[in-house]
């Protein structure tokens, strides 16, 4: 049995509708094509507004949603999908990963949270993982810079994304905090 036949057998008889939401058009196109070859019926959206409309009109069984979109937050899409279909398997993709938003995503119903760049195999594994199955732990531990960044992000989320309050709690100058928040997460 080939790899594609195995994938098809895993999804056979299931609703394989998949909504992919990302504002990075080349990435969206590549991922959509890769998921179609794995047996999914793919629909795409490039904005929160478009994704919420599609989710309400035809709630997908699976969804891959980017956290930060040009017109808002991908968590709004996760919530819209959950309203219509509570058995949907949704994962969040983000280039701005942090623990606080991962926890929020899971509370809203996402089953996994992947940092970009994630390849199609990672996405497929996250979508099809059984409830009790755990993801493999990362091979490399977080760097000290990454741990610091995660802590700042957690406090920022606790302060409802209020920069001034976050800076006060961290005993940090507001402009310094703004510069840190504007950068991508360290590896």
TrEMBL record:
GO molecular function: DNA binding
PROSITE patterns: RESPONSE_REGULATORY (PS50110)
Domain annotation Response regulatory: ranges: 17-131
Keywords for this protein: DNA-binding, Phosphoprotein, Transcription, Transcription regulation, Two-component regulatory system
Protein name in UniProt: Two-component system response regulator
GO biological process, one term: phosphorelay signal transduction system
Signal peptide boundaries: none
Lineage top rank: taxon: Bacteria
Family annotation (InterPro entries): ActR_PrrA_rreg, Bact_response_regulator, CheY-like_superfamily, Sig_transdc_resp-reg_receiver
Modified residues (4-aspartylphosphate): 66
């Amino acid at each position: 049995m080939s790899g594609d036949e195995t994938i098809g057998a895993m999804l056979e008889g299931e609703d394989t509708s998949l909504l992919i939401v990302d504002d990075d058009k080349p990435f969206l196109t590549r991922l959509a094509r890769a998921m179609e070859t794995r047996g999914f019926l793919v629909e795409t959206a490039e904005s929160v507004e478009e994704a919420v409309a599609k989710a309400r009109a035809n709630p997908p069984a699976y969804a891959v949603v980017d956290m930060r979109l040009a017109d808002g937050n991908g968590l709004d899409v996760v919530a819209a999908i959950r309203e219509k279909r509570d058995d949907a398997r949704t994962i969040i993709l983000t280039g701005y990963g942090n623990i606080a938003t991962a926890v929020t995503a899971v509370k809203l119903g996402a089953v996994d949270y992947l940092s970009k760049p994630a390849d199609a195999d990672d996405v497929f594994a996250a979508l099809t993982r059984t409830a009790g199955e755990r993801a493999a732990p990362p091979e490399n531990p977080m760097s000290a810079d990454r741990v610091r960044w995660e802590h700042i992000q957690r406090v920022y989320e606790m302060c409802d994304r209020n920069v001034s309050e976050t800076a006060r709690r961290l005993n940090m100058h507001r402009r310094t905090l703004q510069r840190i928040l504007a950068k991508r997460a360290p590896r």
